[in-house]
Amino acid sequence: MSEQEPAVGGDGRPPAGEQEPDAERVPDVEDLPGGARAALEAVLMVVDEPVDEASLAAAVRLPVDRVHALLVALEDEYAREARGFELRRSAGGWRVYSRADLADVVARFVRDGQTARLTQAALETLAIIAYRQPVSRARVSAVRGVDVDGVVRTLVARGLVVEQSKDPATGAMLYGTTPSFLERMGLASLDELPPLAPFLPEGADLEDLTEGQL
């Protein structure tokens, strides 16, 4: 056996102790509590737009036909048990949505939540989006130094931020502020935005925001 060819077992995998790094870090989803169904649900709970079966299969490391069968089973299960949410096929992919017949309840919650004060994390995120729009969540995360997915979803739910377009280079969703944001800030246009510095996390680079590095 040449030095360039690693040893493999009878199943084509490297012997114990010589597994690939990824294989050591990512467990088999079938061995996790809840198995593959739970793994798929976990992924579906964090996506912001429909995800195709091939991408889901890659995430949970299962064949596409197995993932398709699991998705159909989950779709049927949620509908049969009258959950507050449903799994739907949309735009060539799958995504979890609140049930259509509960839209009034959800809308009332969102409207009532408008009066709640924004957290410091939300203020920081909103300020970065306002000054650098259109901007992706990844770019905002880079400035804040933390994941902002949940905060952005909150801002969208409150009508302060909206999906504007997709980055033609990366395909990432780009976000910007809404007319409601201007109204709540008491501004006629974005040109009247106040200085950004007081809203930024400590250590954030102002040059990244003012010179278009985001």
From TrEMBL:
Presence of the UniProt keyword Cell cycle in the record: yes
The keyword Cell cycle appears for this protein: yes
InterPro entries in the record: ScpB_csome_segregation, WH-like_DNA-bd_sf, WH_DNA-bd_sf
Region of interest called Disordered, as start-end residue ranges on this chain: 1-31
Keywords per UniProt: Cell cycle, Cell division, Chromosome partition, Cytoplasm
GO biological process: cell division; chromosome separation
Pfam families xrefs: SMC_ScpB
Protein name: SMC-Scp complex subunit ScpB
Gene (UniProt): scpB
